[in-house]
Write a structure and sequence with these properties.
The protein is an alpha+beta fold. It contains four helices and six strands, in the order ααβββαβββα. It has a six-stranded antiparallel β-sheet, sandwiched between helices. Bound molecules: methionine sulfoxide.
């Protein structure tokens, strides 16, 4: 199977896992396991946007982060994943994950050493893709996948993984 066929095979499974399930963490856990084992990636998982450590939230203000002035109030926090241990907190605009969040777009990194500010959770990781997860217009998480090979990810992965990400927030 080429990777298009693999994704084509996997997408209905993702849809089935997500259908009728409202718990986002549970869906992230199963989706990361499914992708990880189907493709044999090095690291597959999610970072969720959450209030930054030490920031006291006004419980009436849960509108989420959409502009730079509030950037320090939120950060990416490690969520469900498969693979080796990973860093827990990533700031807005930091690393590949923070960049995908800030720029609200999928970021494909053919060679992590060429990406300024790449955060190396594992020295084994050579290439990476990060896909934002949207709820409505708001980025609520990112899907991050690392490979031990260079040039693993391209537009095909971006397109299919964006479809995977969309299923997570489709009720
Ligand atoms: N490389 C990521 C950090 C997360 S780990 O790869 C699991 C980044 O630069 O944001």
């Amino acid at each position: 199977m080429n990777k298009e066929e693999k994704y084509g095979h996997l997408l209905p499974q993702v849809a089935a896992l997500c259908e009728g399930e409202r718990d986002l963490i549970a869906k992230m856990a199963n989706v990361s396991a499914l992708l990880h084992h189907e493709f044999g990636f090095w690291w597959t998982g999610f970072y969720r946007i959450a209030p930054a450590c030490g920031v006291i939230q006004n419980p009436r203000d849960n509108k989420g982060l959409m502009d730079n002035s509030e950037a320090g109030r939120y950060e990416l926090v490690l969520g469900p994943f498969q693979g080796p241990l990973a860093c827990v907190h990533i700031g807005y605009g930091k690393g590949v994950c923070g960049t995908a969040w800030k720029e609200r777009r999928t970021v494909v990194v053919p060679d992590v050493e060429q990406f300024p500010g790449h955060i190396a959770c594992s020295s084994e990781s050579r290439s990476e893709i990060v896909v934002p997860v949207f709820q409505g217009d708001e980025v609520i998480a990112v899907l991050d996948i690392d490979s031990r090979d260079l040039n693993t990810f391209d537009e095909v992965d971006a397109c299919w993984l964006e479809r995977v990400a969309a299923l997570l927030t489709t009720d």
